[in-house]
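Entry 14. Ran structure prediction on the chain below.
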Amino acid sequence: MNTDTPAPSGQWTPQPTPPMPPMSPAPQPGFVAPAPAVFPPADAAIATWGLTKTFGQKVAVNGLNLAVRRGEFFGFLGPNGAGKSTTIKMMVGLLRPTSGTAFIGGVDVWRDPLAAKAAMGVLPEQLNLYERLSGRELIEFAGRLYDIPKDEVRHRTNSLLNVLMLADDADKLVVDYSVGMRKKVSLAAALIHRPQVLFLDEPFEGIDPVSSRVIRNILRDLTASGTTIFFSSHIMEVVERLCTRVGIIQGGTLVAEGTLAELRARAGGSGAENRSLEDIFLQLVGADTREGGLEWLE
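Output, structure tokens:
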């Protein structure tokens, strides 16, 4: 348990992640390109092979090959429009790839979607919620979808409401929730079945500092007990603080991947060992940070 903010007594605590399901056979030819027999790696919780998405003439994601090991806290970074959300949607089964595929615990998301989705929790950037349910009803509904016994669903729901500081508003309709409260109730719904893999797309947007600290502690505890987290965010300080490994995508192509130390070594230059993730990111994506161009404001 992380010591930044002690968990109140009697609240939800993650248990060790159950073993991943057996690796599925190598995919056969179909609408997606078949992966080689050695892929995905045996210890991969998340993997993609040749993952590609085009919209007309635009290539949004270009042949992405990636493997995230079990228990990693993986940061996925890129400028706006780089392909981050498109990649996540293909990984979780919300957007069909043009070619290639994704695996969750060795299970092909597009050949066995029910088994793959049973192992994952998803907090998307755009929240489409049942707004005429209360927060409590929404979380319980998510738990029942995963066939968790009713009494256990109620127990987990109460624990999640308490630890995410939603208990006082649990019976209020979601339509009346603030942006931050919607994020928290969506996170609770993504955690209710104790997923082996958790996808988070901009989870801290609209979250107040107190709730942000609580959520960070929950995420650290999850990875400590074996959960794999795939985390996309524009908040570099949070990524640098939480993630064990980082991938950077630009124009639909993975341009860098590794630990912060490895990325610093790749960026090179004077004082590279002390450079921030933001500096490394800006260099690797070729961002122009020069000032000027709005002389008319002077």
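The beta strands are 44-55, 58-69, 73-77, 99-104, 107-108, 120-123, 197-201, 228-232, 245-250, 253-258. Will compare against last week's run tomorrow.
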